[in-house]
Amino acid sequence: METLNIEDKAYLLKNIRDIKDFPKPGIIFKDITTLLNNKEAYGFLMDHLERRYKEIDIDFIAGIDSRGFIFGAALADRLHKGFVPIRKAGKLPYTTISEKYALEYGFDEVEIHLDAFACEKEKPRVLLVDDLIATGGTAEAAATLINKAGAECVEACMLINLAFLEGKQKIEAITPVYAVLDVE
Ligand code: AMP
Hints:
The chain contains six helices and nine strands. By secondary structure, it is an alpha/beta fold.
């Protein structure tokens, strides 16, 4: 499957802005709005993802609330697949299944509609998409939800992996992970 060379990765990274101390002191927030508002850079990323996944057997793309919706829904349309939102608790209107995951202090929760992957296949194949892996808790919970909803999470595709936090390994216990960019 296609990956990017060093120059291509550097080009994408150059288009992602670092915001120091957001949303709290000590965090360097990876701001992808600067990638999205550059039609060449956004198109370059989406072309890459389209080439990587177009020959892969996938039935649905699931995106994580909220930046995973941007890349996930765009990719789903390019590949002519259905899109499924995985949302923070309390946002989805129909019957849901949910998964809690630990934060630094306390818990958070993601949800999916019970019938999100309704189709003729017994076990639909799902690609999970989000913008970033930090501790890996969100994507781990999302991949678990996909499997609980009766589908199979075949890969988690993440734009940025904050490698020093080692969250990727946590997700890999459930599903293979493709990180477009690793940040050391
Ligand atoms: P985690 O569950 O710790 O892997 O956190 C991943 C989620 O939090 C993703 O949906 C990201 O959008 C968001 N996130 C966490 N840390 C950052 C960061 N430094 N920059 C941008 N987004 C982040």
